[in-house]
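> call design_seq(struct)
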């Protein structure tokens, strides 16, 4: 089966990340799904932004978790590229995409910041909006994933591996459904082993056509990318892919 293509936070490439317009552009370019990064404000609103702090991607500064939602909404999330965009609330995203049929990979950014109750909040919101059928909750923090499963055993979860090699035993003991390895962890032998393990497999962040080709060859479930614009070239090499994307 041809892998799903998941628009990562930075699509279009070198454009503001985690904004409503970046998600819409990814879908317009043919993405089968979206990956988002979730943090929590001081007053408990879930917001989509990559970093724990506001400094890199907005005209604000300081920790997301120390600001109220109202304060964060005043900021410009397109500071670096000279445009105007708000930091989206997860609610904005769900209004638009919950019933879209897209695969929604929702990363809980709890590996550096501490957001007590964020897992429960996320599940509450998902239930309010559907719940959307194709959600996978991702995290580097295994405790968050264990909490999600404890609160709702039907919810799909996946563990991220960036600097350390993928550990199938860690994934099994965390009771996850999916693996999110950095693409450099995907070699022929490891890819074969992961594929056999029964977990869905979504390598990130694959921004070169040749690496995408390799991932197609490895028969991964999905490719997380900032380069949805390469999608048509990739799909053209696989004529059956149009009706075989898993959606
Ligand atoms: O979903 C995988 C990937 O997004 C994790 O890394 O830093 O881009 O959020 P990062
Ligand atoms: Ca992410």
């Amino acid at each position: 089966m041809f892998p799903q293509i998941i628009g990562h936070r930075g699509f279009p490439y070198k454009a503001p990340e985690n904004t409503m317009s970046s998600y819409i552009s990814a879908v317009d370019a043919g993405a089968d799904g979206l990956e988002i990064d979730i943090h929590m404000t001081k007053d408990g609103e879930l917001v989509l932004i990559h970093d724990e702090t506001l400094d890199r991607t907005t005209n604000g500064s300081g920790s997301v978790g120390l600001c109220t939602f109202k304060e964060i909404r005043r900021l410009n999330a397109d500071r670096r590229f000279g445009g105007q965009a708000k930091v989206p609330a997860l609610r904005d995203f769900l209004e638009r995409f919950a019933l879209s049929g897209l695969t929604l990979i929702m990363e809980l950014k709890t590996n550096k910041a501490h957001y007590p109750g964020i897992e429960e909040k996320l599940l509450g919101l998902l239930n309010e909006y559907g719940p959307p059928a194709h959600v996978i909750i991702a995290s580097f923090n295994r405790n968050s994933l264990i909490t999600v499963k404890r609160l709702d055993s039907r919810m799909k979860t996946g563990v991220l591996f960036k600097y350390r090699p993928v550990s199938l035993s860690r994934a099994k003991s965390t009771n996850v459904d999916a693996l999110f390895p950095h693409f450099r962890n995907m070699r022929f032998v490891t890819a074969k082993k992961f594929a056999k393990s029964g977990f869905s497999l979504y390598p990130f962040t694959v921004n070169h056509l040749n690496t995408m080709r390799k991932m197609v060859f490895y028969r991964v479930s999905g490719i997380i990318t900032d380069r949805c614009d390469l999608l048509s070239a990739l799909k053209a090499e696989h004529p059956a892919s149009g009706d075989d994307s898993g959606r």
